[in-house]
Design brief:
By secondary structure, this protein is of the alpha/beta class. The chain contains 9 helices and 6 strands; from the N terminus they run βαααααβαβαβαββα. A 6-stranded parallel beta sheet has the order 3-2-1-4-5-6, covered by helices on one side. Helix 6 links the parallel strand 2 and strand 3 (about 140). The longest helix has 17 residues, at about 25-40.
Length: about 240
Amino acid sequence: MAHNNSKPVFFFDIDNCLYPRSKRVHDMMAKLIDQYFVTHLSLTEEDANKLHLRYYKEYGLAIEGLKRYHKIDSLEYNRQVDDALPMEDVLSPDLQLRKLLEDFDKTKVRLWLFTNAYITHGKRVVRLLGVDDIFEGITYCDYGSEKMLCKPHVEMFAKAQVEAGVASVANCYFVDDSHLNCSHAQALGWTTVHLLDPSDPDPPIRASKYQIRSLEELRDIFPQFFLSNSPRRSKA
């Protein structure tokens, strides 16, 4: 846990944020989750998919519904789903991402990871992307806790603030690919950036003040956080 610090903190989601959706990690994970429902709840594939989506929409994570109503072993679920993903075959060091993160002026802003995944998955992803040494810490969904907290719940955002040592919402900056997470963060007073995939249509209602399709656009939105000699994106 970080000590309270007056510097702003930029919170980064991990999955489908630090790497693009085109890596199809979400699709692979969805198949493993559905298979878990089939195996452990004795459901058909169709019913498993329906219940998976219902829990995801209601709670932000399928595992929260499983834990509430089926008393599953959450850490075993993590081993069979998140930790079973063949991430080493999908992700590799991303030099452009690393350059972007290195260009943040660390005398002006601190970088922190903020994920709904368990810590083993979150750490594995940033290690494979080659950026694990850039972030000061990580706030994650603790699957082993009696009460699971995850985005978009207010308590999860409060947990992130405490763990990152940032007292005021005015110093919280956040980028996430989830419309739901972004809309809740915006409502709490966090300066929020909704990351859309290049193929996504614009949402009927914006999730937050800022909406981007590439993390590189952060350079233009928040030039005050970047080193003076770091490149700006072309306005053309």
